Amino acid sequence: MLTRIDHIGIACFDLDTTVEFYRATYGFEVFHTEVNEEQGVREAMIRINGTSDGGASYLQLLEPTREDSAVGKWLAKNGEGVHHIAFGTADVDADAQAARDKGVRVLYDEPRRGSMDSRITFLHPKDCHGVLTELVTAAKAAEDH
Ligand code: CMX
Ligand code: CO
């Protein structure tokens, strides 16, 4: 069951400048940063609030590490902006299978590693009315970060 918005993924050309915008404009601080080479991104997670289901809500600021990555290609075509939304679930495998059973293309056979050791998969934007949709199960450790 999808129980919350885990994050909004925002593509940007320069992570440091974008992080500074969110800090200066709203007072948001970076909760976590990492490079995910498989996904081709350098990212900053800005925590917005916590919930009682083992996760929180974040903005995920994404700077591509290579031009041929998903975010790199998208930025070249669209410029900066909202790249995807992510729903939180306690069981990403079950929710991915449920989407598959309804004929929605799930991009990975098995969930992969996402931010903060979460497990993630994606639904194809063309099957979701133009919205690239990520499903996330947070790592337990992320709660106590
Ligand atoms: N939102 C909405 N539509 C999108 C999209 C997005 N983020 N990215 C691509 N599309 C659309 C394109 O506009 C294009 O539409 P048209 O054919 O009408 O022009 C179509 O999908 C195909 O796009 P493409 O540029 O040819 O790109 P690809 O098919 O090579 O890749 C996708 C698209 C979704 C399969 C790829 O971006 C992907 O695998 N995404 C999942 C991984 C990812 O996004 N990782 C980065 C985030 C990591 C994280 O969140 O942790
Ligand atoms: Co994401």
UniProtKB/TrEMBL annotation:
SUPFAM superfamilies reported for this sequence: Glyoxalase/Bleomycin resistance protein/Dihydroxybiphenyl dioxygenase
Record keywords, A-Z: Isomerase, Metal-binding
Isomerase among keywords: yes
GO molecular function, a single term: methylmalonyl-CoA epimerase activity
Annotated EC: 5.1.99.1
First-level EC class: isomerase
Domain VOC: 4-138
Keyword Coiled coil: no
Membership in a protein family: Belongs to the methylmalonyl-CoA epimerase family.
Protein's recorded name: Methylmalonyl-CoA epimerase
Organism: Actinacidiphila polyblastidii
Gene: mce
